[in-house]
Specification:
By secondary structure, the chain is an all-alpha fold. The protein contains 23 helices and 2 strands. It has a domain of 209 residues.
Amino acid sequence: MIGMIALAGLPTFELQLSPILAIAVPLIGAFLIAAAGRWPNLREGVTILTAVALLWVVGNLNAFLEATPSKAEALVDVVPGMSLAFHLEPLGMIYAMIASSLWILNSIYSIGYMRGNKEKHQTRFYVCFALSIASVMGIAFSANMFTLFVFYEALSLVTFPLVTHKGTPEAIKAGRTYLGILMGTSVCLMLPAMVATYVYTGTLDFTQGGVFAQPLANGDLSPALFGLIFAMYMYGVGKAALMPSHRWLPAAMVAPTPVSALLHAVAVVKAGVFSVCKISIYIIGVDQLRLYDQGGWLLYAAGGTIVIASFIALFQDNLKRRLAYSTISQLSYITLGAALLWPISVRAAAIHIAAHAFGKITLFFAAGSIYTAAHKTKISELDGIGRKMPWTMAAFTVGTLSMIGLPPTGGFISKWYLMQGAWTAQSGFAIAVLCTSTLLNAAYFLPIVYRAFFRKPPAPEHGDHAHGDDHDHHDHGEAPLPIVIALTCTAAATVGLFFYPDLFTGYASMLADAMPK
């Protein structure tokens, strides 16, 4: 099943180069997009062709990963014992498949959004987007912490122009918050943790079972210091938005909606939770965390973030800010799954990376569709909008069901596995968090759906004001066709994950089966 979309007959040599090729394709695409900047149709055609080419490359890795173990490929030795190196493993394939498939849909959506809203600097936007995807591929296929750190930082830098795209004082301030928190946490916490890892273990390579077993067993490293290194890694990954390192996410909502989708579904936050899982499994070691009882605090930190962010979301009238706090909460489901330290919970975390990506990008696409067609940003303004924008709000409803964890959506699958993981770990706290947060998700999402479909739209105001754009917005219909196509596809994929979850559950099972029971 995993190899279904692989193309038969591709030479082994080409397959072995594919992790590096997956980085090269969007990099080359970025240069071609910049060169085509004076011709919008050509520029956007190059963007979509590059995205399709990347999906082809990533798709061809499926059969190879299933057929044979992957060896790390060193691109360049930076210093002795430390290189930029890449390999294939199940968690990275989940991330790469999500990002490469959603880039195509986000590109289609961006064409409608950027043109419909007459956004400036569109060439820079598409170039930075391609560079972001190249960074994502580097993170996904990284074979050691050094490589992950390099591309993690690159992702922060190339997304900064996207966050500040509008160039307003608010956007510049948000960009400073964004870059300050993300690079501050990585440089001040993750980097020292990497140095400590290298000092005590002599390696930064991702290794099944982690790299700390020997120094812990020999007494060279105390459990307390091991726990401190783990904590530095977890809070050094600011992109995971674990409270209190979450403020960058709501601040970044000033960016255009395609950027919000990139931050929340395709690249940035997924880089965070992917890094949390990869570090926990391949550097720290789940069995070492269980043996030395050093993972319990993360369970409570993730649970607290889930509930607190959900409560804050209840009181947000700005639609994108409500979605932002929903993301903070949903990301910590993934961290919670990793913190439970059981194979089934780690499987759940990996599946939720995919389920959240497709569900949340659908919600952001819908928010951008509403803004483009009706210029509405507040939930209190959405009365009856489902009658004028049925496709948009139907897609929003699908995304809502997935965030709550209801069938028939992918969110139900991941929530089911998370609950099984909590039950297996005999964690009453995790079970309580999952139940409480599900109710809170329903409380802040379902009223939006009710308001859109079951309340009457407000009557147009006819006063002394000029009948310009405001009057036109009362008569709006759906957003431009590329936007509607993209959000319909992501909504369909969200439902499709419920009926055909094999691709992502297959990778997640490969990941979990290799863990100690």
